[in-house]
Amino acid sequence: MAVGIYFSTTTGKTEDIADRLHPLLNGTNTPQDLADLQDLSQLNDLDAIICGIPTWNTGADSERSGTAWDSMLEDISKLSLTGKQVAIYGLGDSSTYTENFCDAIEELHQCFKDAGATMVGYVSKDGYTFEDSKSLIGDKFCGLPLDEDSESDMTDDRLMSWAIQLKQEIPALN
Question: Which 3-state string (H, E, C) describes 96-155?
Fold first, then answer.
């Protein structure tokens, strides 16, 4: 069983998180920069997919990451990913962009959901300091929000907890 970790980054922080998450999850492939993915249909060969996305275009209705993800969103929506589990982590700045914290998670989440994927890895909003986020579904984020700018001291614990959660939600990790 194969689990892929894909990220796209501007500053390197999203890649750093992928590299830190990888050893916490047995059975995952080496993290891959989305820009190096030859063909999105390669995602069909995986049992599960973990995606990392930053939020740069804060407040935008679309193309919120400012990375390679933005040019692939429509194509992802057209894939047939039924039976595949997808989890998303995202980076944002909860103190500077408190009204749009990690908004890009939701946009990517919706595209994979439209492709028929089973979305996993939802995280409670408890313990986060922010005003609003498009990535909230009820009182949970539709992925793992991380803040390497204002709350980097919480990242390791959040990653560890999420890795434990994903091992329970994604059978391919066991």
Answer: CCCCCCCCHHHHHHHHHHHCCCEEECCEECCCCCCCCCCCEECCEECCEEECCCCCHHHH
Q: Which amino acid is at 97?
A: Y
71 Cβ contact list (under 8 Å, min separation 6): none
Q: Is 100 within 8 Å of 145 (Cβ atoms)? A: no
pTM above 0.85, yes or no: yes
Q: How many residues does the chain have?
A: 174
CA-CA distance, 73 to 29, in Å (whole number)?
Answer: 22
pLDDT of 51-78, one tens digit each?
A: 999 988 677 677 778 888 988 999 999 9
Q: What value, to the nearest 5°, has the Cα angle with vertex 101 and ends 105 and 120?
A: 30
**Which residue's entry shows tokens 């194969």?**
2
Type of residue found at 85? Q
- Amino acid identity of 169? E
Whole-number pLDDT of residue 68: 84
